[in-house]
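ARCHIVE CARD
CATEGORY: sequence design from structure
SOURCE FIELD: tokenized fold
FIELD CONTENT:
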């Protein structure tokens, strides 16, 4: 059963918009670097509901199953990207669900 990997976050205060975009582009590039990622969709928050709880960005990746998500999390490209980006993130939430 396919798994959706949902990540929401906001960058730390003071991070330039250019740097934020550069980091987001690195996340988006994981789809091209890791064949386990079937689909990627994401971007900055544009919701008018006022329920974002401070999250400013998000993405959803689709994987074939739970094993593929586990392999992705251990993939060297994923680990390198997380190590670069995580220190610049103020708040993050991750939820996986079967679709």
């Amino acid at each position: 059963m396919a798994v959706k990997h949902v990540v929401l976050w906001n960058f730390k205060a003071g991070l330039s918009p250019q740097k934020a975009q550069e980091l987001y582009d690195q996340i988006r590039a994981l789809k091209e670097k890791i064949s386990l990622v079937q689909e990627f969709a994401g971007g900055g928050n544009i919701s008018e509901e006022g329920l974002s709880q401070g999250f400013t960005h998000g993405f959803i990746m689709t994987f074939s199953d739970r094993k593929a998500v586990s392999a992705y999390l251990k993939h060297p490209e994923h680990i390198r990207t997380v190590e670069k980006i995580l220190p610049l993130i103020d708040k993050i939430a991750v939820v996986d669900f079967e679709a």
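CARD ANNOTATION: The chain has a mean pLDDT of 96. The first helix runs from residue 17 to 28.
SHELF: design records, drawer C
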